[in-house]
Give the backbone structure.
Amino acid sequence: MPFYPSPGPFPTGMSAENARQQIFGAINGRSKTDEIVSSLWVIIPILIVISSIVAGVALIVSWAINLDPDVVDPMDVIEPEFYFGYAIIVMGSTLAYIIYGILAYKLVNRQNEHYMRESHLRTGIIYYLRAAAGSPEKEATIASELATMNSIQSQANMGEKQRTPIAWALIILLPSLITVLIAASFIIGMSIDPVESSDELEQLIPFILLMSASWIFMLIVFVLNMYLFYFLMKTIYEHDNRWNMFAQQTQYAMYKLGYQIGPPYWAPLPNRSFVLYLILTIIISPFILYWWYVLIKDPNQHFKNQWHFEDQIAASLGR
């Protein structure tokens, strides 16, 4: 976590130099807070799952082709190759979930840290402009810009919540437990011999209970996952809009005070529809992989656009 001075507004009489140092401190902190996450975090788990399925199926097939169905019922002779192949598939899926859990942690954590850094940056800019004006008369010329910037700062402080990264990482990891439950249900189901059983229904009870628990658990986890995707996708869009408005007002105010600074890099993020993405994920489940990519890409783009304007501010203030 980068170092910042204690949060909260600056004193009314804070000097321009102190506010300037606050601005530079926030800008310098971006190397630690604004992490550019690679799309490989989405691709690698897919490759792991595909590889584990191929290896697992190959072992199961090798077991099956060596059996003579005319001599023995395959279900009566479950060789280690079958269980080992199935275990490879389960382990591959579990490893993929672990990677996505780490990714969820990174996405939530960088959002928290970026929001904190930008809040300090906005505060520093507001108080620097007030101090740089030098007189009530000069400050009056940028009163409308300062009012808008203060309003944006208040909206951001109220709307940009700090969330718990580890909690959301664990939620992403929960499906790995579901995978184990389903695997256990499958093995129990295969071990049932209805011919020899005196009470077939009684033997099926553990299998039915495990499968029911798995599906209920999966539904709960799906809802939580969708909420994670919702706030990561929608909050960055709202945050990006606020920053663009704030940067524009900053440019106007600095120009009025005689600073040579170009306009902010204007490339707003697309307003993506959560409902559309949810429907596509339900209908075409692999679409969720693209959704993960979007959750990486949009903040990456926001950071790069913001850095462009931050560099202009630093240059104007004589870095």
